[in-house]
Write a structure and sequence with these properties.
Blueprint lengths: L3 H4 L2 E5 L2 E5 L8 H37 L1 H9 L6 H9 L3
Antiparallel strand pairs: 1-2
């Protein structure tokens, strides 16, 4: 029966001496998994930036179009997350 640790390890040469290094059982899949995770992370950053920048540019356009009426609306309503509404609900006496 073959020795599993000798078939699943990498051989490195250091000063003419072969060194056996066992990092993981599936060394070929590790870079693929890392690439998938990094792609998902970077994709989320790009999509989030697209939405935030798009919302900011739309706000600028709406201010130009509606002027002071829209500025008053901005003071009362949150842009992306309803923190102003939540703050008002928490401060409201029951």
């Amino acid at each position: 029966m073959a020795n599993i640790s000798s078939t699943c390890s990498w051989l490195l040469s250091f000063n003419g001496t072969a060194l056996r290094v066992s990092f993981c059982r599936q060394p070929g899949r590790s870079p693929s998994l890392l690439a998938i995770v990094l792609f998902a992370f970077l994709n989320n950053i790009v999509i989030s930036a697209y939405f935030v920048i798009g919302a900011y540019l739309e706000e600028r356009k709406l201010v130009r179009e509606f002027g002071e009426v829209y500025r008053e609306y901005q003071k009362n309503v949150s842009m992306l997350f309803p923190y102003k509404w939540l703050k008002a609900k928490i401060a409201e006496p029951t």
